[in-house]
Amino acid sequence: MSLSTVFRLSRTVLRTGIVNLEKRRPLQIITSDLRPRFLSVSSVFCKDWVEVTFETVDGSYTVKGKEGDNLLDVVINNDLDLDGFGACEGTLSCSTCHLIFKKEDFDKIEDPCTDEELDMLDLAYGLSDTGACVSLSGSGFLGIYQLGAVECLQQFWPQLLEKANLAGASAGAVLAACIACNVPTEKIRQSFMLTAVEAHKWAMGPFNPNFKIEDYLRTALEALPPDAHVMANDRLFVSLSKLENSTHNILISNWESREDLISCLLCSCFIPVFSGVTLPIFRGGKVMDGGFTNNLPTTNQPTVTISPFNGVVDICPVDDIRYPFYVTLANECISITPRNLMRFVRALLPPPVEDLESLYNMGYRDAYEFLKRRSSQEKRLLKD
Description:
Layout: E1 7-9, H1 10-16, E2 27-30, E3 36-46, E4 49-56, E5 59-66, H2 71-77, E6 98-100, H3 103-106, H4 115-121, E7 133-136, H5 143-156, H6 158-163, E8 165-169, H7 171-180, H8 185-200, H9 213-221, H10 228-232, E9 236-243, E10 247-252, H11 258-268, E11 281-282, E12 285-289, E13 303-306, E14 326-329, E15 332-335, H12 338-348, H13 353-383
Parallel strand pairs: 7-8, 7-13, 8-9
Antiparallel strand pairs: 1-6, 2-3, 2-6, 3-4, 4-5, 9-10, 9-12, 11-12, 14-15
Helix pairs in contact: 5-8, 5-13, 8-9
């Protein structure tokens, strides 16, 4: 499926012409060299003429276009040098030239996206929108792997994490909350390391009755800003397992306060016995770790999935098994391999700090390989 509804490729936009939008805020254009460009439609009209302002990294250009003309006509008629904008003459031969609309502005466009547009957008490098989703699986102490992947995405695909919905279970939900609230990744990394180091000080590690995992989680969540619930509302989706007549999954995406959000995240990480023997109460019902019922929650398509367990996931470790056996557990399709079995153990019994560092680097590397695969797909299409 495509990258949602707020994107339109050049051919449709160039064909349908200038749209007289009510809001005058800039619309972003991503070009083949990945440099941001902006255009805005001025409210200054002279009969059937309209002023169009192109703001680029090299300067600002304000020219006139006739209402009904397409944007390619405006560029060509005014001899604007915009680094290949419309080089394909609107034939939809690549995916590097497209417009990003606010959802409310996109809804004003009557023509639906064609299948050809949607297929092309799937291959656009670095593309994201408010309809995309990043899903982080429950991971325990292996969440450091996901943090490495997140840092790579922040460096090479920042639009994704800035715009997309963020969904997670257990430790993945905690990391997703930190991303949504712009908590520096270095703080998250230090919290992972500190908790692992402290766990190693006890006999039986985190299973020691005197080791209170919730206390360390609360300390880590203190990094959330005072308005964390406002930043997370309708963008962060936390997986919880609710116990009523039967155990089922719920996704929470709205909170009344920062403490309400923190309480929700702690509940999503609660593993019976490991975290305690008394199930927590959230909004009037008993709940526990969301990973038991939905370990890889998604809100919409497309979704970029990240997990420290090898399986059918976009970003995950690679195991050298020729014909692995896959099984779906709590909405996550994972492979049954010796390494994966060891990872499940390490998720609750943290490995040494040096191994955590290796996991972090592995996550970064695997995310980079994922981005390279996406880029290669688009290049192959352009070559064909």
